[in-house]
């Protein structure tokens, strides 16, 4: 198959859809990989590394879209890319269609085959192509929190791990899923006293078994949260209710019960946030202060560490990309139910219920689009 890797052109996006290692793997399977010049630079991969791995470099994004049968990238195509997409071209990337009607209509019009990373789903219901970014954001949360706890950055001026003879900071983590677990682990590793809260008792049991001694688990309810915020120095919001807005576990009135200089890192801000006073911020201007409480609410935290994020993402996407290239999208999706769940928009039809519901569009069955194309009669 002819595979294309364009350079991401969305503002501040430094990740890339395929690493040189990924190129080598696809080449091993007999595929041709075209990489746009400088596509990997933001993640620290030089053109020469791609060439050594067997990629052919193309000078422009137009060349990549015009040449490839399958495009592998990171973010959804933006307006400048719409016209470059060819009918029947397979796009393997994040789309988040339910948050953009314009993108949905553009992909329907282009008659592309859109396989969305975010809806690829395992039988366990886990989302294997979202997990790596939650892992990155979760591990970043205490790192960012520790930074903003410093006095010059308006925090309480407390060192997360304390020192001998001085108590460490108290870190409260709301939600013990992927983000929360990783955040708790890193905060505990830095020596903080960590409390992790969840509404799933089973999850709390698992965490209690695997976490170090300086992490305690507490059931999440309003009473317990109100108590914990009084002593917390850093609070990490990591709650998710699938398909719904995050609940506001910390309401505005609770800020007055916190110590001045407390830092809130609301990782769940991309789902509306679990702290009422949070609103999305950017890496250029990540924080704001309300009632002497520092709010960090960057909606794309992994964007700050593109090297790690690109490797983490492509470790997860590459095995699927190899299947798509080896078998073609129809056979690959027939044989792999997890990949099949990634099909959102195919040849001018919406095949994913969440997207059809979001924009009031008709829903075609996945089975209908997976039927082999009729062979043209000579
Ligand atoms: N800001 C970013 O850059 C970024 C990056 C990655 C993920 N995220 C977001 O982080 C959030 C968490 O993602 P995840 O992968 O950890 O999800 P997850 O499903 O693995 O974990 C969510 C946890 O929240 C728990 N929960 C639900 N209601 C709760 C409540 N009332 N109190 C306490 N816990 C509760 C669930 O039981 C679950 O364990 C999501 O909104 C995700 O989109 C943000």
How would the blueprint of this fold be written?
Elements: E1 2-5, H1 20-28, E2 32-36, H2 47-52, E3 56-58, H3 61-67, E4 70-72, H4 79-82, E5 90-93, H5 101-110, E6 113-116, H6 131-148, E7 170-174, H7 178-189, E8 193-198, H8 201-210, E9 215-219, H9 222-231, E10 234-237, E11 263-266, E12 287-290, E13 293-296, H10 306-335, H11 337-340, E14 343-346, E15 349-350, H12 353-359, H13 366-370
Parallel strand pairs: 1-2, 1-4, 2-3, 4-5, 5-6, 7-8, 7-10, 8-9, 10-11, 11-13
Antiparallel strand pairs: 6-14, 12-13, 14-15
The structure holds nicotinamide-adenine-dinucleotide.
Written account of the structure:
Residues 4-137 form the Alanine dehydrogenase/pyridine nucleotide transhydrogenase N-terminal domain. InterPro entries: Ala_DH, Ala_DH/PNT_CS2, AlaDH/PNT_CS1, AlaDH/PNT_N, AlaDH/PNT_NAD(H)-bd, NAD(P)-bd_dom_sf. This protein is of the alpha/beta class. The chain folds into 2 domains: 2-119 and 306-370, Rossmann fold, CATH 3.40.50.720; 131-304, NAD(P)-binding Rossmann-like Domain (Rossmann fold), CATH 3.40.50.720. It is 35% helix and 16% strand. It has helices at 20-28, 47-52, 61-67, 79-82, 101-110, 131-148, 178-189, 201-210, 222-231, 306-335, 337-340, 353-359, 366-370, and strands at residues 2-5, 32-36, 56-58, 70-72, 90-93, 113-116, 170-174, 193-198, 215-219, 234-237, 263-266, 287-290, 293-296, 343-346, 349-350. Strands 3-2-1-4-5-6-14-15 form an 8-stranded mixed sheet, with helices on both faces. Strands 9-8-7-10-11-13-12 form a 7-stranded mixed sheet, with helices on both faces. The two termini are 24 Å apart. The mean pLDDT is 95. Nicotinamide-adenine-dinucleotide (NAD) binds at residues 133-134, 137, 174-180, 197-200, 203, 220, 238-241, 246-247, 249, 267-271, 299-302.
